[in-house]
Amino acid sequence: MSFVSGRLLPDGESRCDKCSHHSRCLSLGLEGEAKYAFDSMLERSRQLKRGEDLAYEEGRFTSLYVVQTGSLKQVVSQVGARDQVTHFYLPGDLVGLDGIGDGRCGGKIIALESTFVCELPFSKLESLLQNSCALRSRLFHSMGTELRNDRRMMCLLSGHTADQRLASFLLEFSERFKLRGYSPTCFNLSMSRADIGSYLGLAIETVSRVLGRFQKQELIMLKGRQVTLLTLTGLCHVVEDSLGRHSGF
Amino acid sequence: MSFVSGRLLPDGESRCDKCSHHSRCLSLGLEGEAKYAFDSMLERSRQLKRGEDLAYEEGRFTSLYVVQTGSLKQVVSQVGARDQVTHFYLPGDLVGLDGIGDGRCGGKIIALESTFVCELPFSKLESLLQNSCALRSRLFHSMGTELRNDRRMMCLLSGHTADQRLASFLLEFSERFKLRGYSPTCFNLSMSRADIGSYLGLAIETVSRVLGRFQKQELIMLKGRQVTLLTLTGLCHVVEDSLGRHSGF
DNA sequence: CGAGCCATTGAGACCGGTCAAGTTGGGTGG
DNA sequence: CCACCCAACTTGACCGGTCTCAATGGCTCG
Fold first, then answer.
1. All domains of chain A in start order, with CATH
2. Average pLDDT over chain B, rounded to whole?
3. How far apart, in whole angstroms, are the C-alpha atoms of residue B228 and residue B214?
4. H or E element at residue B138
5. Start-to-end CA span in chain A (Å)
6. Tens of pLDDT along A126-180?
7. What is the C-alpha to C-alpha distance for residues A92 and B113, in angstroms, rounded to an integer?
C-alpha cells in the first residue's frame, strides 16, 4: 500500500507507526486526529552522507528533525576560538530544539556517518501545537530535558578532571545506547577523538592518553572506535571518587 | 483600587500592566482575553530574603517564576562534586524553565539579595497554553533562547582561559543590565566571588587574581562588588584575542 | 606505494588549583 | 566609639594536571 505524501494510509496506519524510532519520537502518545495530522506534516525523510550537514538558510533553522538512523554532531563556531562540538545526536533524538522560538541557529549539524533524518518544519509544527495538548506536552518535556542535560554538561565541564569527563562521557553513551535497546557495554563511537575532545573541553592527546590509561586499568577495552565497558561501577567510581578540581577536600 | 486575587481590576487593567518588568515578562504581547487569563493565574508575588530559596517539594518544581526585583542563582548539587552555580537570574528573567515538562528539579534557586518573584504554577500554565498562541510562542522562544545560552556557556567553559571567562562574564552582565535599562558599564554584582568562580569553573583565588589584573590593565575598576567597565572593546579583545586553549594556533 | 588522516606516545612548559597568610569591611557587643 | 569577630576577599608560593609541540605508527584511499 503506497501512500500519497501527507495522506493517511488506507488501512489507517500512519507512516510514523512504521518508523523504528516511533517510541522515542515526538509522535508517541498522539492519538486519532492528532497522530494523522502530525504524520501529514512530515517532509519526506532525508539522507545525509558522512560529513554532510543539515542545510539551513543563512543561520536560520526552520525545521525540527528526528534522527532515524545514524548519528550527528552539533558544532558551534565562535569568533576567537576553534569550532566546538556541543552535542551528539543518536537515533530518536530531536535536532533543532534550540532553534525553536526564533529560528536562530545554534550551530551546524553534521552527520558523523550515513544518516537518515525525518523533517518537521517549524511552521507546520506551530499549527499542530495549537490543537494537540499531547504534542505540546511532549515538546516541552523534550526541551526541559535538554535544558537539564545542558546543566549537567556545564557541571562536567567546569569542575571535573579529564578522567572524570571521559568516564562520564562513556557512561552517558552507555545509557543512551541502552535506552535505544542496544548493548550498554559494547558500542561503536561514531565520532573522532577530536570530536570527543572538543565536546569535553580536552585536547585530543589527553583524550587518547586517558582512554589508554582506562584500558590499562581494565576499565574498558578499545579497538579503534569500538569500546567495551568492562566495569560500569568502576567508571562510576572514577566520576565520583577522585573528587577532581574544586572538590574542596 | 484594590483587586481581589485573580480578578481583573475594575478599570480593565491587569496586574501585569503595573509590573515594572512587564516588557520582559511572558505576558508581553498578550491581548484581551489571554492577558486577563494570564493575570488571573498568577499567585501573589513572593518575597525572598538573601540566602532563602524558592521552595520546591521533594526535588520537584511546580511553578514558573518571573523575577520582579533582586537576583537569584541556580545551584546544582551533584554526588562527588561540590555544588555548582549554573545560572544567575535578573529582573524579568524566567526561573524554572528546565522544570517544564516533567517538573523535575534542575537545582536549588537561591536569592542573592532581597528579591521579589511572581509565581505562575505549571498546572495553570498548561491551560493558558491551550488557548493562547502568543503565550505558547513566547514560552518556546524563551526556552530556545535559554538552550542557546547554555550552548554558549558550554563553549566558554570548555575552551577558554580564566581571563576569557571573566571578560565574557563581565560582558554578559553588561549586556543584561543594558537590556534592562541600567548602565551597561557600571553595576553591582550581587553574587560573591565564590559564586562567580563556581559559575565559571574557576577557583575563587583565580577570580580574584584575574579581576585584580584587569584592574591593573585599566580594563575595569573595582570597589568590592561594584564594577565599572572602562573599555568594552578592551574586554572583547580579551575574549577574542588571546585565543586561549584549544585555539589550535 | 605514497598521501593524508587519525590515533598514540613522549618531553617540556604553563595555566590555574591548592594551601596558607594577610587584609578589608560590616556587624555586634561592651 | 572602639574592640572584636567573622566572612569575604586578596595576595603569594608552590605544585600538578593538562596543553603544546613534535615524532611515530596504523589505516584508508587513490
1. 15-138 (2.60.120.10), 160-240 (1.10.10.10)
2. 86
3. 11
4. helix B133-159
5. 66
6. 888 888 888 888 899 999 999 999 999 999 999 899 999 999 999 999 999 999 9
7. 43
Tell me the CB-side half-sphere exposure of residue B215, using CA atoms within 13 A: 13
Q: Using pLDDT thresholds of 50, 70 and 90, give the confidence band for residue A246.
A: low
More confident residue, B12 or A66: A66
Residue-wise pLDDT for B129-173, tens only, equals 888 888 888 899 999 999 999 999 999 999 899 999 999 999 999
Pairwise CA distance, residues B160 & A201, whole Å: 9
| Residue A222 Cα to chain centre, angstroms | 23
- Interface probe with A: pick from B151, B168, B237, most Cβ of A within 10 Å: B151
- The pLDDT score that the predictor gives to residue B164 is 96
Name the residue among A42, A2, A50, A5 with its Cα closest to residue A22: A42
From the CA of A194 to the C1' of C3: give the distance in Å: 21
**Phi, psi angle pair for B69, to nearest 5°:** -140, 160
The cell 567597565 sits on which residue?
A: B229
Q: Helix A162-179 to helix A133-159 angle, to the nearest 10 degrees?
A: 160
Across the interface, whether the CB atoms of A84 and B158 are under 8 A apart is answered yes
**Which residue's CA is nearest to the C1' of nucleotide D18?**
A206
Between the alpha carbon of residue A122 and those of residues A7, A17, A86, B243, the distances in Å are 19, 22, 22, 37
Q: Which residues of A touch B26 (CB under 8 A)?
A: none
Per the DSSP assignment, residues forming a β-bridge with B66 are: B94, B118
- Kindly state the cell numbers that stand for A48: 545525509
